[in-house]
Design brief:
The chain is of the alpha+beta class. Helix content is about 30%, strand content about 25%. The protein has ten helices and 18 strands. The strands form four sheets. Strands 1-17-16-15-12-9-8-3-2 form a nine-stranded antiparallel beta sheet, with helices on both faces. β4 and β5 form a beta hairpin. α3 packs antiparallel against α8, α5 runs parallel beside α9 and α8 crosses α9. About 40% of the residues are buried.
Length: about 375
């Protein structure tokens, strides 16, 4: 497949296209929190058919669900309840979550797996190192393991011993001690982990998982499944910047996803993308980061070095059918760097936009044919 690169000698139209996409990528978390929440063209609905929406803090992020073809507000409450359900499965830090219990299995390995009311995870009798987990956790870990192996470990869900050392949300974040990082590195590998149905076999007591790079995408897909099953065919699911569009607007036109002006007020929109039935997810160095001694440290960590990737990329945006794919691939393609990431995205059949530190745009083959970007009239 061919890959298109924009260099300094671009035509005017190409330069403009670069600018619009750059706006999207550089401010994607802020944009999708506000821009997608403020989908345009709502004035075309009459009062009886206005979209219904709900916002809340769930999954440690801002969540917004907007439904365009139903007035059943109970569906919105049900979506938030599903977010709570999945948080109790996938959270790495909540001591009541299933993942936390799996990561700290050494503390519960003597529990009776046949106890009445026993919840997952629990050890499988007669099989050393094997634990029974829920269907959802097994599905998510399987997805993560597949990407881990396809990327040769550039992305690895068994990175919790390392991510637990970095606190990007601290009031005054600092880099961890290098000695602690070096101690954690040998533990950050999912080699030998196998999943058979809902049974996971772990070759080491030290293996711990962090599914933060894929969980929101998985949850968004499950929310979509729920809403579609309830007859919804037009909606926006926004989980802290992971945006999944269900179908199009009720009149059949695409959703207009606002592209915010960089470094401007949140309500200043430069352009819009036409999105129908797709997921839009970005990963970048600007999302969670801090500076120390003049150097920028961001949250996309290299499991082989213990430090943030330094590969010349600013961000990667993935547009895909499944949000879990976009979530996993935005991080993975960033980790693989420009050349490897472009090849990997095209291999996986998704559209992607890469922004390098020289502010050049690099995108997958066919991106401009599939994704329409237009100006907003002032």
């Amino acid at each position: 497949m061919s890959t298109y690169f924009f260099h300094s000698k671009r035509s005017h139209s190409h330069s403009h296209f670069f600018y619009l996409i750059l706006c999207t990528v550089l401010v994607c978390p802020m944009l999708l929190f506000t821009g997608c929440g403020n989908i345009t063209d709502t004035d075309s609905f009459n009062n009886e058919n206005e979209p219904i929406s709900i916002s809340s803090i769930k999954l440690n992020t801002a969540v917004q669900i907007t439904i365009y073809d139903s007035q059943d507000k109970a569906l919105l409450d049900d979506c938030l309840a599903l977010c709570d359900k999945y948080e109790l499965i996938f959270s790495r830090t909540n001591e009541n979550s299933e993942l936390y219990k799996l990561n700290h299995r050494k503390d519960t390995s003597d529990e009776d797996s046949n106890a009445v009311g026993q919840t997952t995870p629990y050890p499988v009798n007669g099989t050393a190192g094997t634990w029974h987990i829920s269907e959802d956790l097994a599905a998510l870990l399987s997805e993560g393991l597949d990407i881990t192996r396809e990327s040769d470990g550039a992305f690895d869900i068994a990175i919790a011993p390392l991510t637990s050392l970095w606190d990007f949300t601290a009031e005054d974040p600092k880099t961890p001690d290098d000695a602690d990082i070096q101690k954690a590195l040998p533990l950050c590998s999912s080699d030998g982990v196998t999943i058979n149905g809902q049974d996971i076999t772990l070759p080491s007591d030290d293996i711990q998982f962090d599914v933060g790079a894929i969980a929101k995408g998985y949850i968004a897909d499950r929310l979509k499944d729920f809403l579609v099953k309830k007859g919804v065919n037009s909606a926006i699911i926004n989980l802290g910047g992971n945006v999944l569009c269900i179908g199009s607007k009720p009149d059949g036109t695409p959703f207009k996803v606002g592209i915010q002006k960089p470094f401007a007020d949140r309500n200043e929109t430069e352009a819009v993308m036409d999105i129908t039935g797709k997921s839009v997810v970005s990963s970048g160095i600007y999302e969670r980061c801090f500076k120390q001694d003049g150097k920028l440290y961001h949250h996309i960590l290299n499991p082989k070095t213990g430090y943030p990737y330094d590969n010349g990329l600013i961000s990667v945006t993935i547009i895909s059918d499944q949000s879990v794919d976009g979530d996993a691939l935005s991080t993975t393609c960033f980790a693989l760097g420009l050349e490897g990431g472009l090849k990997f995205a095209e291999k996986k059949g998704v559209q992607a936009v890469f922004i390098t530190e020289d502010y050049e745009l690099h995108y997958t083959d066919g991106f401009r044919d599939e994704i329409r970007v237009t100006d907003v009239e002032s």
